[in-house]
Amino acid sequence: MITLWLDIDNTLYSAQSGISAHMGKKIHQYFLGMGLEEEEASALHLQYYTKYGLALRGLMLHHDVDPLDFDRKCDQSLPLEDLIKPDPALRKLLQDIDRSKIRLHAERVLRILNLDDQIEGLIFCDYTQPNFSCKPDPEFYHQAMEKAGVTDPSTCYL
């Protein structure tokens, strides 16, 4: 058995959708809402994204930001329904693969793309956990394998 890991953002939909640009603006606004000046907000956003894989991790670690508030103001406020549409070729590709082990944001994207019935399970950055891990932290991948019941990384594809 193999396990196929699908990265939702800019993978199941085109990077040309504009979602990353919209997200960047929302995150920048979040930094500005903390009272930071434009340049300081931009620099800190880049620093946290580069160091932690998510700006949110840096915000949580250094500014005690509530991840669910961040999620509401950033991820959940994106106009995804206007930016992405189902891709019949991608759907067919997933239908042709034996069922593989694959939350709010992920479920929403999968639903909009009409792929939610093609995915057996989700592994995600769980903002409800006080010290969640995320890509590219190796701990994220170890936790994902554990949750999926996978012990042999050579059977996993990302």
- Architecture per CATH nomenclature, i.e. the level-2 architecture: Orthogonal Bundle
How much of the sequence lies in strands comes to: under 5%
Sheet with most strands: strand arrangement:
1-2
Arithmetic mean of pLDDT: 87
Tell me what you see in this structure.
One of its GO terms (biological process) is pyrimidine nucleobase metabolic process. GO terms for molecular function: nucleotidase activity. It comes from Roridomyces roridus. This is HAD-like domain-containing protein. The protein is mainly α and 158 residues long. The protein has a single domain, classed as DNA polymerase, domain 1. It is built from 8 helices and 2 strands. A two-stranded parallel ribbon has the order 1-2. Helix 1 packs across helix 2 and helix 2 packs across helix 3. The longest helix is centred in the N-terminal third of the chain and has 15 residues. It is globular and about 50 Å long. The mean pLDDT is 87.
Which SSEs are present, and which pair or pack?
Elements: E1 3-4, H1 19-33, H2 38-52, H3 55-63, H4 67-73, H5 80-83, H6 88-96, H7 104-112, H8 138-148, E2 156-157
Helix pairs in contact: 1-2, 2-3
In short:
One of its GO terms (biological process) is pyrimidine nucleobase metabolic process. With 158 residues, this protein is mostly helical. It has eight helices and two strands.
Key attributes of the depicted protein:
single chain, mainly alpha, two-stranded parallel sheet, HAD-like domain-containing protein, DNA polymerase, domain 1, 158 residues
